[in-house]
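Anyone up for a design puzzle?
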């Protein structure tokens, strides 16, 4: 079948489409129907089924006689570890950890925070929660204690599972002090913590609260898979919104596994026994869907990579991992390829390694620029597929579905909508715009299985953030267009979310931190264009009256404050002191215009600007930090 037939087939009968996709899952009690719309516009999928995600990702492959195949391959160019874990071993390890968690009181529905680096134990912790029906919430290691504390208070975990440390190329990330500080800061206190002690750093445990990963499991009865309802939350994953309070994206179990299983064959062309690698982090949605659950549901091998595209130790490390593991489909962020391209423009490192069965490179997380795609096409000779999705959707909204049909690639476009997504471009009044015209990208409700049904403990915020602007649609927060052939183009965010090195960050959250500096009266943060990272945050500070300290000192303190409060991942390194910010007469800061000035791009003088002279002041200030060059 061609893509068009599959997409039209879904449109004609979505219920039949998803019930058929559901057949690839082992159900304890099968669903009576796919869509549950009695609470519309809040929709649920396969709600009356009983199922277990861990069974489907692990145990059923062992039952099928594939226990000796590698499930997880750990590759750490930082520690030089390379080790495979078979499905049978994984089953044992996960059942044992789940048994220990249960012995300490973790049950179905309890939340467990996981704060771990890229080691197989992070996946084991996720799967152990899934085994018990506990709801995991993984927190990215690049976030600081305050961000962890915010998440602890929001999802009130019974337990936290962490590692003693993470390893960045230039430093050891001391997880344990960050964890201790976060628990100290949070109002909610977990009952206990489980610490995986890495040999690079043995953390000091707090008697009575912290347990050693291994000792904790000693002599416990392994846990079996606990049946959960189809609409039972599998996990909560926090993502950046417009404010400092992150959004807790909820993923329901049945829709999550049905959708991911469908994507593995149809988008990535991956089946049992194949080898798949998503070079992301378990702390992001890509890590949830395509390092942990997706490849394991398919019975494929997944790679857990602890390293960077460059500098660990060289720009050929990705290709070495692909060669040594005979990777079939590879998934990374455009920024990673840009980093490699910068160090290896002629692909000398690429030539050193065999590609074996590499069939395609998938890109997501940010817009894939044509130069980078062409560079990869030239050096790999395989399709380089941009696909577009969000933490909220959990899987691709638009892609080039390699497992169905390889569609012609159009540079700058993540191709076409996937079944389940009726994507439309709307004007401000919510009317569809003609092909080729820019507008807000929205998806007709209901969203397909695997997408967010709501935000954790925040249904009102869910409605306000996503459903209220265009009734009957989900508002993606992205702007763009659809061309005559139905190809989508994602151009920009419509909110204050920026994308730095494939990481989604909130300028609003950074502004909240800057505003807490005692000398700062007012501030703004924008995302300026960056050749490597896509965007980079720039801060503007207006100082309180009477402050006459050295500006460089204040900027330095602000940079440190953001790093300490949000984390190194915010990559907030540049700020300038200004007297005024450009605003509309109603007081709205003209961030879009500031971005154009920073990027030296032409802009239209906003009709509502209060005082146009401020723009010149902003330009001069930006020039002092290397931006707004003519
Ligand atoms: N734990 C702790 N700190 C982390 C971290 C983690 N898991 N991940 C990143 N950081 C830190 C980095 O060490 C860096 O700290 P520094 O300021 O002390 O140098 C900071 O956060 C910023 O990191 P990053 O923006 O990633 O920049 P970088 O210069 O270290 O690396 C790239 C640049 C392009 C190589 C890197 O960003 C990259 O590989 N990006 C791809 C991202 C990706 O795959 N995203 C998933 C979306 S699909
Ligand atoms: P995240 O939730 O971290 O996955 O970030 C989602 C956002 O990243 C989207 O809303 C887009 O703004 C951006 N994004 C992700 N993938 C793409 C892509 N392929 N092209 C353009 N933007 C993308």
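Challenge accepted. My sequence:
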């Amino acid at each position: 079948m061609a893509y068009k037939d599959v997409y039209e087939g879904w449109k004609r009968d979505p219920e039949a489409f998803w019930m058929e996709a559901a057949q690839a899952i082992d159900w304890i009690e099968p669903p009576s129907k796919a869509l549950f719309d009695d609470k519309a516009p809040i929709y649920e999928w396969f709600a009356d089924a009983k199922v277990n995600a861990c069974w489907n990702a692990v145990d059923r492959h062992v039952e099928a006689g594939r226990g000796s195949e590698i499930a997880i391959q750990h590759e750490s160019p930082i520690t030089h570890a390379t080790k495979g874990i078979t499905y049978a071993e994984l089953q044992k390890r996960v059942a044992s950890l789940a048994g220990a968690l249960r012995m300490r009181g973790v049950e179905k529905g309890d939340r467990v925070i996981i704060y771990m680096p890229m080691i197989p134990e992070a996946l084991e912790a996720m799967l152990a929660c899934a085994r018990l029906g506990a709801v995991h919430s993984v927190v990215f290691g690049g976030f600081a204690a305050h961000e962890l504390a915010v998440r602890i208070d929001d999802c009130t975990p019974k337990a936290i599972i962490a590692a003693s440390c993470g390893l960045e190329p230039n430093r050891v990330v001391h997880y344990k002090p960050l964890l201790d500080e976060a628990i100290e800061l949070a109002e909610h206190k977990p009952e206990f913590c489980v610490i995986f002690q890495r040999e690079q750093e043995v953390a000091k445990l707090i008697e009575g609260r912290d347990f050693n990963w291994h000792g904790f499991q000693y002599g416990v009865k392994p846990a079996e898979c606990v049946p959960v309802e189809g609409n039972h939350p599998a996990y909560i994953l926090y993502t950046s919104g417009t404010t400092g309070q992150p959004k807790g994206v909820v993923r329901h179990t049945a829709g999550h596994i049905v959708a991911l299983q469908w994507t593995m064959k149809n988008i990535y062309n991956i089946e049992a026994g194949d080898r798949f690698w998503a070079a992301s982090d378990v702390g992001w949605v890509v890590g949830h869907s395509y390092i942990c659950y997706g490849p394991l549901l398919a019975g494929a091998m997944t790679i857990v990579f602890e390293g960077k595209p460059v500098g660990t130790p060289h720009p050929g490390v990705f290709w070495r991992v692909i060669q040594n593991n005979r990777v079939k489909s590879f998934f990374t962020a455009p920024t990673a390829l840009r980093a490699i391209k910068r160090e290896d423009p002629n692909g000398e490192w690429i030539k050193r390694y065999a590609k074996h069965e590499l069939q395609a490179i998938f890109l997501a997380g940010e817009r894939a620029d044509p130069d980078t795609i062409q560079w990869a096409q030239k050096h790999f000779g395989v399709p380089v597929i941009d696909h577009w999705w969000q933490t909220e959707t959990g899987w691709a909204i638009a892609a080039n579905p390699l497992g169905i049909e390889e569609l012609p690639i159009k540079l700058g476009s993540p191709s076409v909508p996937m079944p389940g997504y009726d994507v439309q471009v709307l004007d401000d009044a919510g009317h569809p715009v003609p092909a080729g015209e820019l507008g807000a990208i929205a998806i007709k409700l209901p969203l397909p299985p695997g997408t967010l049904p709501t935000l954790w403990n925040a249904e009102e915020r869910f409605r306000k953030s996503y459903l209220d602007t265009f009734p009957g649609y989900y508002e993606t927060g992205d702007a763009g267009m659809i061309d005559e052939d139905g190809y989508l183009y994602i151009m920009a965010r419509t909110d204050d979310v920026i994308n730095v090195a494939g990481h989604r960050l909130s300028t609003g959250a950074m502004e909240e931190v800057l505003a807490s500096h005692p000398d700062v009266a007012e501030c703004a943060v924008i995302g300026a264009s960056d050749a490597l990272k896509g965007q980079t945050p720039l801060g503007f500070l207006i100082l309180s009256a009477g402050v006459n300290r050295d500006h460089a000192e204040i900027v330095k303190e602000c940079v440190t404050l953001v790093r300490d409060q949000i984390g190194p991942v915010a990559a907030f390194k540049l700020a300038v002191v200004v007297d005024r910010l450009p605003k509309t007469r109603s007081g709205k800061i003209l961030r879009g215009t500031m971005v154009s000035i920073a990027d030296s791009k032409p802009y239209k003088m906003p009709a509502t600007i209060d005082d146009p002279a401020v723009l010149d002041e902003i330009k001069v200030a930006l020039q002092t930090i290397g931006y707004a060059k003519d």
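A detail worth pointing out: The chain is about 30% helix and 25% strand.
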